[in-house]
Amino acid sequence: MDIKRVALNAVNEVIVLTVPHMDYKGQVAKRINEKMPLATVKGFRKGAVPKALVEKQYGAAIKVEEVNKVVTLALERYLQSERLNLLGTPLPKENENFSWADEDLVFEYEIGLAPEFEIDLDAKSNVVKYQIVADDAMLDAQIARIQKQYGKIISQLEVAKGNDVSGTFVNEEAGINNRTTIELEELADPKLAKSFIGKKVGDIVTMNTKGLFHDTHKLMDYLNVSHDDVHDLDVEVTFTIDEVVAHELAELNQELFDKLFGAGVVTSVEDLKAKIKEDAEKHFGTQSEQKLMADVQDFLIETHKFDLPKEFLVKWLQTVGEKKLTPEEAEVEYNRSEKGLRFQLIEGKALAQSNIQINFEDLKQFTSATIRQQMAQYGQANPTDAEVESIVARVLSNQDEVKKLSEQVVAEKMLQLFKEKANPTTKEVTYEQFVAAMYNE
User: Per residue in 101-146, pLDDT tens?
Assistant: First the structure.
């Protein structure tokens, strides 16, 4: 058999396999001989059918089977020997002139190759690491929410100033149908807020989404619409009231402090603010890290340009998965996953270049931290070291789990490497400023 690669460009090639008659004729003849005692043809006793008739009836199908076996094995061995860095898997190429009647058969397979490129992790960047600060306005608002949450709820017959109003926003044409609760003070237009006063359960208030709240992003929560839609959303919505409540605020006393944080942990309003600030900024730190990594990924993708075999991958996407995709669906899927694929290639190159490795201690520490985090989510905030170590030992005795966790540890080390190399500028911001930066506003 003759196998060769024909390069179309740097990332697209065709593998051409020429299968001569001698590569399959012996196996075809053997299969026909095996078939003869079992062959049944009208007018002949079983096992007494002439060989020519057996060949005529079964020969073509046997030839197809045997040639496909030869081609599949040859292609697999060739790819292994060439050590090609493929994207996707080989796709058979249609040939209008192909005929199974030919003795020498030619098969062609399209392949997509991972691009060759150099990686520069030390390139100068403008990546920013945001340090989010819980300012006094946020702390006061959070304390007010706590007092409302732990206070008494008093059902009302009609809306009065300071009440919370529950109901459903609807605009069928825009696909809006969302039940929520709003505080009248959150509405940007004082006249609109005042129009709720005196309304009762069952009443309907009509309003426009443009400038509805002081912060446009609140439309995402109250109307259940995406961020891409909120800034240009300018439609009328109806709000049907189904509940009105007043709040008797909880007192800021030791009983409330103990209920929130445990006995004696917080003993004053100043302590309460400090605790809220600590918890909020810890949570913000996670969000800041997520944005930092997203920005680093964007930077690396932007600064490392290379071609991908898009046309091939779109065709390949049509063939994989339980549901076959149309060309249009495959194009959408490719566009959705292209950024991730580019970063995956950059990450792989950086991994090889940086020679990142993990040892068993790394794996144990990562597994232990993961288990503690999971236990905390289920209410076991302070497990003993012995409990955690027992679970770690059990998890690491499973080879599938070890492989999965090892990949996660490597990924974490890569993230740390990327963040260090990006050398971001630290910028202190409020949460509102961070949200604006997150959406590039």
Answer: 999 999 999 999 999 998 888 888 889 999 999 999 999 999 999 9
Q: Which amino acid is at 369?
A: A
Dihedral, CA atoms, 191, 160, 234, 213, nearest 10 degrees?
90
pLDDT tens per residue, range 286-339: 899 889 988 988 999 998 999 999 999 999 999 988 888 999 999 999 999 999
The CA dihedral of 429, 431, 437, 440, to the nearest 10 degrees, is -160
Q: Which residues have a Cβ under 8 Å from the Cβ of 54 and sit 6 or more positions away? A: 32, 35, 36, 39, 41
Round to whole Å and give the CA distance between 125 and 121: 10
Residues 202-217: b if buried by 16+ CB within 10 A, e if exposed: ebebebebeebbeebb
Three-class SS state of 320? coil
Measured N-to-C along each axis, helices 327-354 and 399-422 cross at an angle, to the nearest 10 degrees, of 80
Joined together, the tokens standing for residue 15 give 């593998």
Yes or no: say if 342 and 137 are a contact pair by the CB < 8 Å rule: no
Identify any residues that bridge with 128 across adjacent strands, giving them in sequence order. 425
pTM of the full predicted structure? 0.73
If you write DSSP's letter for every residue of 110-161 in order, what string do you get? EEEEPPP----TT-----EEEEEE--HHHHHHHHHHHHHHTSEEEE-SB--T
> Out of 3.10.20.310, 3.90.1150.10, 3.10.50.30, 3.60.21.10, which CATH number does the structure's domain 152-248 have?
3.10.50.30
